[in-house]
Amino acid sequence: MTDLAELQRFTPTKPFFVGIDSDGCAFDSMEIKWKECFIPRAIEHLHLQPVAKYARAAIEFVNLYSQSRGTNRFFGLIESCDWLLQHPEVAARGFTVPPLAKLRAYCANDPQPTEAKVVALHAKDPSQDLEQAINWSKSLNVDIKRMVHGIPPFPKLRESLERISAHADILVVSSTPKDALVREWTENGIAKYVTFICGQETGSKKQMLEAAAKTYPRANVLMIGDAPGDFKAAAAVKARFWPIVPGAEEASWDLFHRDGIDHVLNGTYAGPFEDRLIADFQAKLPAKPAWVP
Ligand SMILES: [Mg+2]
Question: In the chain, which ranges are continuous DSSP H helix?
Answer without folding.
Answer: 4-9, 30-33, 39-45, 52-64, 73-85, 88-92, 101-107, 115-124, 128-147, 157-164, 178-187, 205-212, 228-236, 249-255, 261-266, 272-283
